[in-house]
Specification:
By secondary structure, the chain is an alpha+beta fold. It contains 8 helices and 9 strands. It has 2 domains: 9-130, no CATH class; 144-222, Alpha-Beta Plaits (2-Layer Sandwich). The strands form 2 sheets. The protein has a 5-stranded antiparallel beta sheet. A 4-stranded antiparallel beta sheet has the order 7-8-6-9, with helices on both faces. Mean pLDDT is 78; it is low at 31-47.
Length: 224
């Protein structure tokens, strides 16, 4: 998602809360296919699920429950949570993450006890940030969210990075420094702007009517 500064505590917490909320929704659904869907929407692909689970659970205990399966236990929302992994996939993923220094693992009477390392936490947070997206609503309420910015030329790299990432999170460009969304996006936009240290150049407005942007506006309106 481009080069940006080191995450601050506030930004780390935003990402962890976003990931935790996605997994909490999956827990309430209590369906494996829903868990996979919600996790993907939260920026976690299957190959990174152990790392993501560990970064929000803190400590993960994984034990064999069948000849070809492992079950992982940890606390996500104040109560035990469980995930199942195919034995061969889990062992390969754990081996790879230990080799790369993302996690530490030790054998206990209950199974593997997995803890994330600072390097692993950084990787997990970057993965979440790279897959951050504006949450779409089932029904549009008619409000347009407008983002504008006026960033000096001396910050050209940051300006380009901001543009690239506003598109990536789901905003539509109307002009070089004007972006629009049909869905609430303030949290995602401010997070993105802070990553590139340009938040003080950014303005967000939500309005009920928008005209005069020609063909591009017509295309976006047709999608509503």
């Amino acid at each position: 998602m481009g080069r940006y500064k080191k995450l601050k505590k506030q930004e780390e917490q935003f990402l962890l809360n976003r990931l935790r909320n996605e997994w909490e929704a999956a827990e309430r659904a209590q369906k494996l296919h829903t868990i996979a869907t919600v996790a993907k929407q939260g920026g976690v692909v299957l190959a990174k699920s152990i790392l993501a689970f560990t970064v929000i659970a803190g400590v993960l205990t994984v034990a064999a429950v069948a000849p070809n399966a492992f079950s992982a236990y940890g606390k996500l929302i104040g109560k035990p949570s469980r995930r199942f992994y195919e034995k061969s996939v889990f062992k390969e993923e754990l081996r790879r993450m230990r080799k790369q220094g993302f996690v530490q693992a030790r054998n206990t009477p209950s199974g593997y006890e997995i803890r994330i390392t600072p390097k692993g936490k950084t990787r997990a947070l970057r993965d979440i940030a790279s897959n951050l997206a504006i949450k779409k609503q089932q029904k549009w309420d008619g409000t347009w969210w407008l983002v504008t910015f006026d960033i000096p030329r001396r910050h050209n790299a940051a300006r380009n990075g901001l543009r690239e990432n506003l598109k990536r999170i789901g905003m539509e460009p109307l002009q070089a420094s004007v972006f629009i969304s049909r869905y609430p996006c303030a949290e995602e936009v401010w997070f993105t702007a802070r990553l590139f240290c340009v938040a003080h150049y950014v303005t967000i407005a939500h309005i009920n009517s928008l005209e005069g942007y020609g063909e591009r506006m017509f295309e976006i309106t047709k999608e509503v």
